[in-house]
Write a structure and sequence with these properties.
two-stranded antiparallel sheet; Jann2411-like fold; 185 residues; 52% helix; single chain; mainly alpha; globular; 4 strands; two-stranded antiparallel ribbon
Length: 185
């Protein structure tokens, strides 16, 4: 699946945002405005200005709505959720080229709040996944003790874990040890 750089960046951002929720990891990764500033800096979200409790609550709400999209049972449900999220953000598509990237589209208004920025850009990235008929690529880790979100960009849609280095490896090692123990009798 060919994904333009701006869509890939937005997909990485939405996955990281969803994974800040308490159900994905211990504690809330966006518990205060300091964490929100750190998130914005980590994802190079420009023009955030001064962030307050209202911004934090709005981003937490957008995060919950993105989590619903990852849990959507079918493309119709995902499309309805994406449509609602993007419409509420008041998208304003604009062509831009910056930071060494060629022309691409930003979907948020230049003075948008951080919540609207995330809802518009990340919502449109998820819209492209649904339009491509690839909604099943929006997944949760299958490790029993992990619920982290990820986008399966493998060629054959076979990725099962948020990270093959952590969850995948841990489960493969456990299965290997169980087989060895059973064989040893």
């Amino acid at each position: 699946m060919l994904i333009p750089h701006d869509t890939r960046i937005a997909l990485d951002t939405v996955v990281d945002l969803v994974n800040t929720a308490p159900e994905s990891e211990p504690g809330d990764g966006l518990a205060d405005t300091g964490a929100l500033y750190a998130f914005a800096e980590r994802h190079l979200i420009s023009g955030v200005g001064v962030l307050g409790e209202k911004d934090l609550r709005a981003v937490q709400d957008v995060r919950s709505r993105f989590a619903e999209i990852f849990a959507a049972p079918d493309a119709r449900t995902a499309a309805d959720l994406v449509n609602g999220l993007v419409a509420a953000a008041g998208t304003t598509p604009q062509l831009t080229n910056h930071d060494g990237y060629d022309w691409h589209v930003h979907y948020f208004a230049p003075d948008a709040s951080i919540a609207d920025h995330l809802a518009a850009d990340c919502g449109m990235a998820l819209a492209f996944i649904v339009v491509a008929g690839e909604q099943e690529r929006l997944r949760r880790c299958e490790a029993p003790d992990c619920r982290r979100a990820f986008v399966d960009l493998s060629r054959n849609r076979s990725r099962r874990y948020c990270s093959s280095r952590t969850c995948g490896n841990r489960l493969h090692v456990a299965a290997y040890r169980a087989r060895r123990k059973e064989a040893a009798g």
